[in-house]
Amino acid sequence: MVIKERNVQLKNGRSVLLKSALPEHAKALCRHRYITSGETHFMARYPEECGESTERMRERLESLEKDERDFLVTAFLDGEIIGDAGVTKIRNHVKSRHRCYFGISVLQEYTGLGLGSRMLELALEQAWENGFEQLELGVFSDNERAIRLYEKYGFQKTGVSPRAFKLKDGTYRDEILMVRMKKEDFLFYDTEDLENEEIKLVLEKTAGED
User: Does the pTM exceed 0.90?
Assistant: First the structure.
């Protein structure tokens, strides 16, 4: 499906357009995934493993455009892709249709500016609107920034896949499994900018309640 476009402002004051990547963005999206896979070890693949052709990516985007529930949240700055997130069904079986999986990548140059939060907020809203009831993800155990972000938005740790990733240097990383259940009209929003000249509110942790 194609999501409704939304303009968001980063902490540096720049405006970013969040929308679904379309078939004509295939080449740019391939390039984005190639770059982000090499900036940190937190992506599932190395750059040389991002060998999907532009044509194959175009076909995938065409299929995604027609899907009734799966979608992308892609961030464009001055027409260039700087972030990409996807929500896809776990499987189409009746017993699993309430579940979906979330993945995200942001160019390192634009991390720490609130872009991940804005993309995640939109992904959650759209996922619930599409009928999903829980959003699931996996994150490297040493990706502390990402884990804090997910916990701030109500994700809970459900398990660990030990030594899920083996890096080129021979070291291993566990994968933390997390899930966010749907809660009507409830969402943790970014509170990092709640300050003025006299006082600053620091959010130490968030906790979901019944």
Answer: no
